[in-house]
Amino acid sequence: MTWFHNNILLPICQPDRHQRLGRRLRDLELFDRMQRSQQTAIQERRIHAVLDHAYATCPYYRMVFDRIGFRSSDWHFGEPLPLPELTRDLARTNVESLRSRGFRPWELRKAYTGGTTAPPITLWRDLEGLRNKVAVQYHLNRLCGYDQGTRVLWIWGAERDLEQHPSWRWRFYEEVLLGRMNCGAGQLSEASFRNFLEKLNRHKPEVLYGYSNTLALFARWLRESGSAYHRPRVAIATAEALRPEDRLALELTFGCKVTVHYGSRDVGMVAAECSEGRLHFHPAACYVELLPAGESPTGPLYRLVVTDLLNYGMPLIRYDTADCVQFDETRCGCGSWYPSVTAVLGRAVDHLVLPDGSLMDGAPLVMRAGRTFRKIRQVQIIQKSINRIQLRFSALGEGAEVEQELAAFLGDMEQAFRIPIEWDVERVPEILRERSGKLRMTICEVPREQYARECRSAN
Ligand SMILES: [Zn+2]
Questions:
Q1: What is the CA radius of gyration of the chain?
Q2: How far is the CA of 334 from the centre of ligand 1 (A)?
C-alpha cells in the first residue's frame, strides 16, 4: 500500500506538500546509493544555486554579499562559507528582506519557527522547497521502517500541527487512510496518559513517534501503571535531545528499537540516527558547519550552523540553529560519510506542573505566551513551586515597550496556570548555555514526588 500512498493518495489529497512525492523519494534513494564524489558534486551545485539565488533575489543577501565583496564563484567546496551567520535575531528583524523576490507572494507558504528560548520567527517557503523538505522527512522515516500507510501513534505537543483539521473527513484521511493516530500532548495528566494507552492498544501502531521528553514520560507512566499494553516495532524520538535515561526507559518499556531524528521548524527534518548512535545530516538537504563553542565536562562543544539547500522562498545561509553539538572526527562505524554528530545538546525543555497536578509541555506554552514579543529576545522559566516562578529574560532597549510585553507575557502565563503566580523577575544581558552545552528554556524544580501526588489527588 505504500506505493499507493506515496504516488497517488498523498499527492492528490495534499498537493501543496506531496506533489510528485513518489518521484522525490526515489530520487533520494538514488542519491543514497551514489558514489560519494557524485553526492558531493550534487551538494556543491545546490550550495552554489542557493547562493546565486539569494544574491539575485533577496535584498538582505545582496547587501551582505556586497558589503564583504563576496560572490558564489569565490567559494570552493569544503571551505567554510565566508559569510556572517544568520542568527535568529537577524532572521526576525529581516524577514521581509530575506524573502525571495523570485516568487510572487501567493507562491510562498508561511511557517513559524518553534523558538527554543526565543520567540518564533516567520519563515517563507516556496512550494517546491516545502515538498522537497517533506520528502526528506519521509525518506528518513522510511530508513527506519516507517513508510506512509504504516500504523503510527503520534504523540505531539504542537497543537497547530494536530488540531487544525478536526473534521471527520480529516480524521478519516489521517486515521483510516494514512493509519496515523494523533495524541495531543500539550498538557499531560493521568487522564491523557490513559487516553494514550487506550489509543495504543486499540490502534496497535508499528511506530511510536513523538517528542523525546513526552515519549519517555509516557513510557514511565506505562510501567508504573501496571497496565497491559501493545509494543510497537520502533520508537522515533524527535524535537528535543533524548537523554540516556529516557532512551533506556523507552527501550525497557517497549522492548523495541529506539531512534532519534533531528530537525527544527526552521530547516525541517534533516538528520537521522544510525546504528552507531550518531546523527547523520542528509547532504541533499543541508550543508552543515560546526563552529567551536567552548568546552563542557563531556568534551568540546560546537555550534550547529546549517545552510538550507531546499528552501528558495527565504534562503537560510549559515543559519545559526542555536543548538550545540558534540562530534567525533573519526569515520562512523556505520560506513556513511554524511556529516554526523554524536550528541545534540541544544534544546532542553522541562514540563511545567499546573495546579491540578497535570504537566504542561513548556515549549509551546512559552511560545504561545510570547507571540507578541518585539523587544524581548529570550525568556527562561524556572518553576520553583506550583505557584512560584522565576522568570529570566533578555531584551533590546529600555522603557515602556519592554514593560508592556513583560506584563502581557506574565498575564498569559497566569491564564495558563489559572492561579495567581508569585513572580521573581530578573533581567539578564543574555541567557547562557549551561556548562553541559544545554540551553534551557523551561526548568522545573518542583519535586517529582510532589507533582505525582497532586496529579493523583486531582484525578
Ligand atoms: Zn553512522
A1: 22
A2: 4
- List the single range of 98-107, 210-219, 282-291 with lowest mean pLDDT: 210-219
- Residue 341 CA to ligand 1 centre (angstroms): 9
Q: Is pLDDT of 458 > 50?
A: no
What is the distance in A from the centroid of ligand 1 to the CA of 277?
Answer: 7
230's CB contacts (< 8 A; 6+ apart) are 200, 201, 204, 205
Cα separation values, 187 from 207, 227, 361, 399, 416, Å: 22, 21, 6, 35, 11
Q: What pLDDT is recorded for position 455?
A: 45
Task: Give a three-class secondary structure readout of 295-315.
Answer: EECCEEEEEEEEEECCCCCCC
Distance 91 CA to ligand 1 centre (A): 32
Using CA atoms, how far apart are residues 142 and 138, in angstroms rounded to an integer?
6
Residue 442's pLDDT is what? Answer: 83
State in Å: Cα 326 to ligand 1 middle: 14
Where in the chain is CATH 3.30.300.30? 350-458
Longest dimension (CA), the chain: 66
The pLDDT of residue 346 is 65
The CATH 3.40.50.12780 portion of the chain extends over 1-346
The H or E element containing residue 380 is strand 376-385
Asked if 364 and 160 touch (Cβ cutoff 8 Å), the reply is no
Q: What is the pLDDT of residue 456?
A: 45
Residue 276 Cα to ligand 1 midpoint, Å, equals 5
Spatial distance between the Cα atoms of 301 and 316, rounded to a whole number of angstroms: 23
Using the mean position of ligand 1's atoms as its centre, give its distance from the Cα of residue 427 in Å. 42
Going from the Cα of 272 to the center of ligand 1, the distance in angstroms, rounded, reads 9
The answer as to CATH 3.40.50.12780 being correct for domain 1-346 is yes
Ligand 1 centroid, distance to 332 Cα (angstroms): 5
If phi over 0 gives left and psi between -120 and 50 gives alpha, with beta otherwise, what is residue 250? alpha
Confidence of residue 157 (pLDDT cuts 50, 70, 90): low
* CATH H-level, domain 350-458: superfamily: ANL, C-terminal domain (3.30.300.30)
Give residue 216 CA to ligand 1 midpoint distance, Å: 24
User: pTM for the complete prediction?
Assistant: 0.83
What pLDDT, on a 0 to 100 scale, did the predictor assign at position 28? 98
Q: Please give the grid coordinates belonging to residue 55.
A: 544574491
